[in-house]
Amino acid sequence: MNLNKQEIETWLRETNSDRLSELWQMADRVRRRSVGDAVHMRGLVEISNHCRRRCGYCGLQAGNSRVPRYRMSAIEIRSSAAEAFSYGFGTVVLQAGEDTGIEGEWLADIIRTFKRETGLAVTLSLGERNEEELALWREAGADRYLLRFETSNRDLFRAVHPPLKGAASNRFDLLRHLRELGYETGSGVLIGLPGQSYNSLAEDICMFAELDLDMVGSGPFIPHPDTLLGRGLGFDLLPPEEQVPNTALMGYKVLALTRIVCPEANLPCTTALTTLNTNDGLESGLMRGANVIMMNLTPLTLRPFYEIYPEKSCFTEEPAETWPRLKNILEALERSPGRGPGGRKHGLG
Ligand code: 5AD
Fold first, then answer.
1. 150 pLDDT exceeds 60?
2. CA–CA distance from 265 to each of 96, 212, 289 (Å)?
3. For the chain, which has fewer Cβ within 10 Å, the N-terminal or C-terminal residue?
4. Which pLDDT tens digit goes with each residue over 260-279?
């Protein structure tokens, strides 16, 4: 790796705007050299907001009775996913809470049919599922799996992500297992969790390189009122000079540093970043290391219920409006939508 942990931490603490410009430029150069100017488009379908977990940060946590729960039908999933095809995107991402109502065979059938009909790459983001299900979906044709490890600090992880009864979670083992099954694997962290130190965030970024991830998406923590952390708990755990702030700026630093330590990985400009910076969040992300956009294709009627944090961007816009807007942004940056499935390119740069 080209930056060590100490250097990463120093960059995370950097406040001088001239120095930060250097960081953005460095990340942009590495991005261009390693993955080029293409911006890969993923169509995101949030297929269910049921969740068995009680994560301290997430509005979909099982204890939140204020959120109406939905699970899209197979027909609804097919029709939303097909929009990705009609826009010429290379990949559809099926995301949900950790919903055991999404049964192995049921989803395998949806994946098989979709792959047969469109040939698009399929990415799953469904939380910690068992080995049989993960193997079954892979056999059905799923290409990639996203599972953020959220933080590499074990104590903090356990505190914000309580284990299910009798089952400790080890997301690092699960990521390795996904890789063995032949999935391209993606991960990422929350930035600015209460109790997250600069040192710990630097360690997270080192882990991205160590795990040799194909995709990395991280975003600032945004408090949700119906969660433990959303009630302001925990922000006094660390001395202020050690606590990572949950700001867009910190999000960009993590993005840029991730590009530098994982040159060939696919890095999205995440929704949390565009939510915190509605002005030019996307443009800035694309100029500071990102080469992937996830465009929301969830039916508009369901989107308000997939509220992992409040005021998620893209709540009210039809894909038919979003896509021309995004194309204009890409054109202005002299970038172009990627062709093909947009998997990780090995052996470049
Ligand atoms: N703020 C920002 N990101 C969040 N996530 C969940 N809750 C929040 C929040 N309050 C992220 C987690 C999860 C991903 C799907 O969404 O990192 O892995």
1. yes
2. 23, 9, 10
3. C
4. 999 999 999 998 898 998 88
| Structural domains of the chain, with CATH | 5-332 (3.20.20.70)
Predicted structure pTM score? 0.96
Predicted confidence (pLDDT) per residue in 188-230, tens digit = 999 999 999 999 999 999 999 999 999 999 999 999 999 999 9
300: closest CA among 287, 292, 312?
Answer: 312
Dist CA 199 CA 334 (whole Å): 36
Atom 3, ligand 1: residue with shortest CA distance: 221
Over range 70-99, report the average pLDDT.
Answer: 97
Give the residues across from 124 on adjacent strands.
Answer: 94, 145
Rounded distance, CA 314 to CA 317, Å? 6
- Extract long-range pairs of 279-287: CB within 8 Å, 24+ residues apart: 281/248, 281/313, 282/326, 282/329, 283/329, 283/332, 283/333, 284/252, 285/252, 285/255, 286/39, 286/329, 286/330, 286/333, 286/335, 287/24, 287/28, 287/333
Retrieve residue 163's tokens: 């284990």
Query: Residue 123 — φ and ψ, nearest 5°?
Result: -110, 135
Q: Per residue in 315-328, pLDDT tens?
A: 678 899 999 999 99
In whole angstroms, what is the distance from residue 338 CA to residue 343 CA?
10
What are the distances in angstroms from CA 53 to CA 12, 19, 33, 99, 126? 31, 41, 40, 9, 12
Ligand 1, residues 44, 45, 55, 58: which to mutate, most atoms within 8 A of Cβ? 58
Per-residue pLDDT band at 340 (split at 50, 70, 90): confident
User: Is the distance from the beta carbon of residue 190 to the nearest atom of ligand 1 less than 6 Å?
Assistant: yes
Token look-up 């600032």 returns: 220
Q: Any bridge partners for residue 216, and if so which?
A: 187
pLDDT at 233: 78
258 pLDDT higher than 60 = yes
Report how far ligand 1's centroid is from the alpha carbon of 69 (Å): 18
Cβ atoms within 10 Å, residue 29: 12
Q: What is the C-alpha to C-alpha distance for residues 120 and 92, in angstroms, rounded to an integer?
A: 7
What's the chain's Rg over C-alpha atoms? 19
